Amino acid sequence: MEGHYTQVPRRNEDERNRDFSPINRTSRLELTIMKPLIFLNVALCAGLTTLCDAQEGIKIVSRWSTNWDVGSSLTYVLGDHERTEEYWGVRTVDAASRMSSLSLEECGAAPTFYIVRGKTLYGANPETQTPPPPTSALGPGIIRVQVVHVDTGERKVKFGLMARHIITTEKYDFTNSTCQPDETSHKYDGWYSDWPYSNKCSKLDTPEAEPTFRCGDRVVVTREGPRPSGFVMSMDEEVGYPNWRTVYSSSVVQWIERQSLDPALFERPANVRPTSELGKRPPKSEDQPSNPPN
Question: Is residue 59 part of a domain?
């Protein structure tokens, strides 16, 4: 996806097919796209309360596709805060489009995800979430990962920034592992530019994370070539599976523009229902979350 991405634990193929989207992958792109720019009035509006006036931020429009679906993403960034809306099955977002999911993030903290079903938001209250159990001891096996980064030498100007073409290939060896193989390979074909702004998110600059598995075995990673860094303008992925099936995904930033944003967009929504109630009929009085101006 054209944007900043973070790797997340691999899921089995059924899980991917159920809830794939560039924001929830990450495809380990749990693509968290592009991060912000503006520091104006941060001292006055650090909490992003509704008392603050609208401020200049950034709007990023992206489009993505997979073997089985297409969609669009709108990302709004203001200071160290980011709001990303996903629209599954929508090629061009307009006022009539309905959100499929929403994420809110403050740089340096884990994002909060909400699923949108019709007129209702479902999610977990981060203040009441149960912390994950302590990590168990490593298993007896070893998963070996070979990662190769290749800078093709190609360069393109995108949105006024020089982008570098870097291809990353990961191959997984489960020969000495006690775990069931999931993916067998993963290829990232991306264009990376320098960050067009500076804040906590851009300073982290970690478009690629270490490979992780839903498995207790030890993971040994070897690398060749320069690791990619910077702002991800576009990304094509190929994921290989043991059954010889290949899953493809692609994402690209359509445009980036400065826009006056209301800090209230980045506040946590009220009246969020727990995810355990997904599938139940919501009250008729609940309305679809309103879309910010496009």
Answer: yes
